[in-house]
Automatic annotation (TrEMBL), chain A:
It comes from Kryptolebias marmoratus (Mangrove killifish). This is Alkyl transferase. The lineage of its organism: Eukaryota, Metazoa, Chordata, Craniata, Vertebrata. One of its GO terms (cellular component) is dehydrodolichyl diphosphate synthase complex. GO terms for biological process: polyprenol biosynthetic process. Its EC number is 2.5.1.-. Keywords: Coiled coil, Endoplasmic reticulum, Magnesium, Membrane, Transferase.
From TrEMBL, chain B:
SUPFAM superfamilies: Undecaprenyl diphosphate synthase. Its EC number is 2.5.1.87. This is ditrans,polycis-polyprenyl diphosphate synthase [(2E,6E)-farnesyldiphosphate specific]. Its main location: endoplasmic reticulum. GO terms for molecular function: ditrans,polycis-polyprenyl diphosphate synthase [(2E,6E)-farnesyl diphosphate specific] activity. It catalyses: n isopentenyl diphosphate + (2E,6E)-farnesyl diphosphate = a di-trans,poly-cis-polyprenyl diphosphate + n diphosphate. It comes from Kryptolebias marmoratus. GO terms for biological process: intracellular cholesterol transport; sprouting angiogenesis; swimming behavior. Its cofactor is Mg(2+). Pathway: Protein modification; protein glycosylation. GO terms for cellular component: dehydrodolichyl diphosphate synthase complex; endoplasmic reticulum membrane. Keywords: Endoplasmic reticulum, Magnesium, Membrane, Signal, Transferase, Transmembrane, Transmembrane helix.
Length: 336, 289
């Protein structure tokens, strides 16, 4: 089964899509695709068949999202905690992933036509090497596509992601690119695996569970959360519409909360900059503060500019490091 | 055509809002009707004890609950009932978070929730709103909790020591009410901000060559966050209000938290809380397996 589904919506779906599109639409939707095994159990299928049908549903959902003008989708494919499952099931899932990424590489031209960019978020080092290489190949091949984005969280948990971001910043400090005092909320966000995406507007979890299970905890703090009771392989266009309607009902109040948070963050950053400058000046020995307000202001501006420059250099280096990780995996693959 | 769609969209939104309002109105009606029926039956059966058993229904009839005199046996009766309710639940959260996502906050209702949680045996209760209003006026909340504790549980203030642990630097309010329960007032500051502070600390130690970036692990960060604020992970968060979002509530801690949504915290009754706790009791976690 392929990643890209062709085909239009039927008339009723089209009309409903147009009605929804008259309101504010989410730009980025995240899915916890829960319920594959329960679905298999209910239908007396093999567990693996449940996972396969789950994947097919993903391809279908991507088609709906395209018609609803949702350019970015993030899915929780495999959690680090899932390694605790039976060896048989983990191996089955790895095999399924391998097949799907091979298939994806075969469909290269179609992906290019639709401008689909695939990103994989997670610690690839935990995966078997051949799967790592396939993933790297898929990521590198679709890197420059920019119409729709699919982020697949694989060997991922949010706490691990946050910790990894802290580790990257500590690496930056070790390399002398940034100072420990440059660490901020905005910088941490930039060091997450999801740094290239805006935060999701809407998070959907299926199968009636009402928790986040360590998925995008940082990124969804001002997202609309929708918990639906349908099992993932049974997810329908109408379920998606219902979730979007929920988002639209929540849109105003969430936007307000986001604005509030942004303002608070800006104040916090300014305070941090002031404190750093004061400390810096104290070190220079002129008793903490330059004489008049104007000079103080100028010194602050200079400090902010230099901090921003450091941060930009660091982020550039980080991006380079991550890109070369994928490139190295790809070239290893060619050598093999 | 676009205009037509836009009109239809507006109409749809109104329809959903009306549906929501009707459903929640019906729920309240049904509840009070059922409550009255129940109360009636019990009154008939156990005439003398009955009134004392359902203080929250009394409260509805008489909204000014604070001026009600505390009658010893009434309080003891409800306390015993709450405790047995707590014991009859399949599992009880050790930390329950109340998140209020409404414009108007009612301190009395939140205080009631806290007191009921203490009565059923929850050892850690946190209260959150994304404007940080509860935290700014935490002394008022504390007073309100004490008052409700007296009126609902009949606990004499002089007998139970109420401690106020004031973490003066960031105005963290954290107080121990009675010997068993801890109440914590949270704001967005305790969320991402605290994670960033921990990250800064780790980066400083890397800067001073005390550790290498490779040593940083999930458990290290977790321990560091626990040291600074000592907030356990909440097993259950009850969210009040129409907004479906965590609005910055402790992002690190809510990894496995169950979220239960209730329409409003105003005039919330003990039965509503009990129902949420029962729903939590029925949730199963597979922890990745």
């Amino acid at each position: 089964m392929s990643w890209i589904r062709e085909g239009e919506l039927n008339l009723l779906e089209k009309i409903s899509a147009n009605i929804l599109k008259a309101g504010p639409m989410p730009k980025h939707v995240a899915f916890i695709m829960d319920g594959n095994r329960r679905f298999a159990c209910k239908k007396n299928l093999e567990r693996q068949e449940g996972h396969t049908q789950g994947f097919n549903k993903l391809a279908e959902t991507l088609r709906w999202c395209k018609h609803l003008n949702i350019p970015e989708v993030t899915v929780y494919a495999f959690s680090i905690e899932n390694f605790k499952r039976t060896k048989e099931e983990v191996d089955g899932l790895m095999e399924l992933a391998k097949q799907k990424f091979e298939k994806l590489l075969e469909e290269r031209e179609n992906l290019e036509k639709h401008g689909v960019c695939i990103r994989v978020l997670g610690d690839l080092n935990m995966l078997p090497l051949d799967l790592q290489q396939l993933i790297a190949k898929a990521v590198v091949t679709t890197r420059n596509h920019n119409k729709c984005f699919l982020n697949v969280c694989f060997a991922y948990t949010s706490r691990y992601e946050i910790t990894n971001a802290v580790r990257e910043m500590a690496w930056g400090v070790e390399q002398g690119l940034i100072k420990a005092s440059d660490v901020s909320e905005a910088l941490l966000s930039e060091c997450l695996y999801s740094s290239n995406s805006p935060n999701p507007d809407l998070l959907i979890r299926t199968s009636g569970e009402v928790r986040l299970s360590d998925f995008l905890l940082w990124q969804t703090s001002h997202s609309c959360l929708v918990f639906q009771s349908v099992l993932w392989p049974e997810y329908s266009f109408w379920n998606l519409c219902e979730a979007i309607l929920q988002y639209q009902l929540n849109h105003k109040s969430i936007q307000k909360a986001r604005d509030l948070h942004r303002d608070e963050q800006a104040v916090e950053q300014l305070e941090a900059d002031r404190a750093c400058l004061a400390e810096h000046l104290q070190h220079q020995g002129n008793n903490g503060k330059p004489a008049d307000a104007q000079k103080r202001q100028e010194a602050l501006q200079r400090y902010i500019a230099s901090r921003e420059e450091r941060v930009q250099d660091f982020l550039h280096a980080l991006k380079h490091k991550r890109n070369s990780f994928f490139h190295d995996l790809c070239s290893e693959m060619v050598l093999n | 055509m676009a205009l037509l769609y836009s009109l239809l969209w507006r109409f749809l939104l109104v329809l959903v809002r009306v549906k929501r309002a009707v459903v929640s109105w019906l729920q309240i009606r049904l509840r009070s009707w059922r409550g009255r029926l129940w109360e009636g039956t019990i009154t008939a059966l156990l005439l003398p004890v009955a009134v004392s058993e359902f203080p929250d229904y009394q409260k509805k009839a008489n909204p000014n609950v604070n001026v009600e005199p505390v009658r010893g046996n009434r309080a003891v009766g409800s306390r015993a009932r709450w405790l047995s309710d707590g014991q009859s639940l399949e599992k009880l959260p050790a930390h329950i978070g109340f998140m209020v996502a409404e414009e108007e906050l009612s301190f009395t209702d939140v205080a009631n929730l806290v007191v009921w949680c203490m009565a059923v045996g929850v050892s850690y209760v946190s209260v959150y709103d994304n404007h940080g209003i509860f935290q700014k006026s935490s002394s008022r909340l504390q007073e309100e909790i004490l008052r409700q504790q007296q009126s609902l549980l009949g606990i004499d203030e002089s007998k139970y020591d109420v401690e106020l642990l004031n973490n003066s630097r960031d105005k963290q309010q954290h107080f121990v009410v009675s010997c068993r329960s801890t109440v914590k007032v949270l704001s967005p500051e305790d969320g991402k901000h605290t994670i960033v502070q921990a990250a800064k600390k780790l980066c400083h130690s890397v800067e001073n060559k005390e550790r290498s970036s490779k040593d940083i692990s999930v458990s290290m960060l977790d321990v560091l966050l626990r040291e600074s604020k000592n907030i356990p992970d909440p097993e259950l968060v009850v969210k009040f209000g129409p907004v479906n979002s965590t609005l910055g509530f402790l992002p690190w801690h809510i990894r496995l938290t169950e979220f239960i949504s209730l329409p409003s915290h105003r005039n919330i009754s003990y039965e509503d809380l009990l129902r949420a706790l029962q729903r939590y009791g029925a949730c199963q976690q597979r922890l990745g397996q």
